[in-house]
Design a protein that fits this description.
This protein has about 325 residues and is of the alpha/beta class. The protein has 14 helices and 13 strands. The longest helix has 22 residues, at about 220-240.
Length: about 325
Amino acid sequence: MAKSEKKEKEINVMDLPGVGAATAEKLASAGFDDLLSIAVASIGTLTDAAGVSEAVARKIIQAARDGLDMGFQSGTDMLNKRNKVIKIKSGSENIDNMLSGGFESGAITECFGQYGSGKTQIGHVLAVSCQKDDSEAIAVYIDTENTFRPERITQFAEGFGLDPEKVLGNIKVARAFNSDHQMLLAEKVEDLIKEGNKVKIVIVDSLTAHFRAEFVGRGTLADRQQKLNKHMHVLALLADKHNLCVYVTNQVMAKPDAFFGDPTEAIGGHIVGHNSTFRIYLRRGKKNTRVAKLVDSPNLPDAECIFNVTENRLEDA
């Protein structure tokens, strides 16, 4: 009983050493209003947010970690967690079979390819299909390239047999005008969830457009990658903490040193590659089809499939 009471008490931020009412308010305003967000924060970040010394910040973080089960888990525990994974269907059996049932929650799925390869179309479809089995599901769409089209959502909603007006009402869209704004919007998703919104998917279209435009030249590469890494860590934490699906699109470039094979390479380098759980390469096929190739996955073999983008659905070719 004493142990249970102790655990119950430890989940309160106010019970952390060095955290009074004023500090707790500062932490909450910076987004650190639960033990997990504090436990995974860096000392520097907490120092800036709460205005405390490094020594105090270290104590706060350590106490938050002690209050949570941050140690090792058994394989059985991990399997039980995997059983809670939700698969969001694309409407194309070929794509869903390639992904062993659909786009996975608790993970970041990246689609990269040239313009017109179907990246944005898949994003629109997922914003609709997540509502197919749950009418309260919310899709968050962070639009960086002005590609979100409500008319397209209406067409896909009709294709899924859903009410277009209700579907549109359950999609929260925000236009990001620069990389800092984009990062802020990703952090704001946490607030939407705390307000009671049942967020099932976060779509970022596209992930790298602003970073690519703002950081030009080799001299800025380190800064760009550092910001991109931080942004993807926020998205990964959202996916893991709230068991939601994160879908990001990515631009490509041609490798100048590639003499054989496909010279297409995704922007963002190893940072994006390592932070993405699943990576899908999209390209145009014959007779206006699209080819999706699964190039990276922790549990699925490399595979390829063909699909069509029609007026109101994705169809198998």
